[in-house]
């Protein structure tokens, strides 16, 4: 596996350091913690490529591209040399840079490079436009999510209210059923039969039949045979006879009042 690195911009005051073991120069690592939040930056990334892939798919750069690379190497000499004010250090830096450039120029024709792909051409403006588009879509989706959450909360509140009302209605229905059963226990058996008969007649179809009349007649016949009903009928008959005997002396009172009223009217007319 051969590691390959991306050439990325570093700080302005960064300078290359020489590795004595490999005789190569390396740029210092950039501290991404110093980058202000909210600004885009390029992050170094190392990718390990198999040597077999390098030998089979990678190839040297074309000659025009090699010339551009050599010009870039030469353009790097001036900033390094002009940074040192000391003449001796400037000469040493110039010699070191020239040695590195000569070494790279010799190796450049034999250096394999990966084939050019669409992903290798980084377009910063296109990336920014895509980023803005994604942010706009994200804002729209967030607004939709907020609206859906508000609608869900509204429906949940309505569901809770309806559930509470349903529970209250169920409680009232159970209470009414318990009260009806309690009152049914105190009813006379014949009244229960009459209630059952009335409910059966109300739930029957509207066709005219004589079944109800027969059932009603049989129920009345059963009342005549009930000893408790007979006892109640005797008590009621006794009360009626007692009331009739108590009101018998007053049967002629109405005629006497009528005659007295007529006499008073006649007397008042004679006096006038």
UniProtKB/TrEMBL annotation:
Q: Where is the composition biased (Basic and acidic residues)?
A: 170-190
Where is the stretch described as Disordered? 170-191
Instruction: Give the superkingdom in one word.
Output: Eukaryota
Q: Which Pfam family, just one, is annotated for this protein?
A: CENP-Q
Return the InterPro entries for the record.
CAD_CENP-Q (IPR025212)
* Protein name per the record: Kinetochore protein fta7
Q: What is the lineage of its organism?
A: Eukaryota, Fungi, Dikarya, Ascomycota, Pezizomycotina
């Amino acid at each position: 596996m051969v590691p390959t690195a991306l050439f990325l911009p570093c700080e302005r005051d960064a300078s290359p350091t020489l590795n004595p073991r490999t005789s190569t120069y390396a740029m210092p690592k950039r501290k991404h913690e110093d980058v202000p939040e909210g600004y885009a930056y390029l992050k170094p990334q190392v990718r390990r490529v198999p040597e077999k892939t390098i030998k089979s798919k990678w190839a040297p750069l074309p000659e025009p591209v090699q010339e551009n690379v050599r010009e870039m190497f030469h353009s790097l000499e001036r900033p390094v040399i002009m940074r040192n004010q000391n003449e001796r250090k400037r000469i040493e830096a110039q010699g070191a840079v020239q040695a590195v450039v000569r070494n790279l120029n010799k190796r450049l024709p034999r250096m394999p490079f990966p084939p050019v792909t669409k992903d290798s051409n980084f377009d910063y403006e296109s990336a920014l436009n895509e980023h803005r588009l994604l942010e706009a879509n994200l804002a729209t989706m967030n607004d939709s999510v907020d609206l859906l959450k508000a609608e869900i909360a509204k429906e949940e509140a309505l569901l809770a209210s309806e559930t509470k009302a349903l529970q209250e209605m169920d409680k009232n229905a159970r209470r009414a059923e318990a009260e009806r059963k309690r009152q049914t226990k105190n009813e006379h058996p014949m009244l229960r039969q009459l209630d059952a008969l009335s409910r059966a007649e109300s739930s029957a179809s509207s066709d005219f039949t004589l079944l109800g009349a027969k059932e009603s007649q049989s129920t009345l016949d059963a009342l005549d045979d009930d000893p408790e009903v007979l006892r109640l009928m005797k008590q009621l008959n006794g009360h009626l006879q007692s009331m009739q005997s108590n009101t018998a002396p007053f049967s002629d009172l109405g005629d006497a009042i009528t005659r007295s009223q007529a006499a008073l009217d006649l007397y008042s007319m004679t006096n006038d």
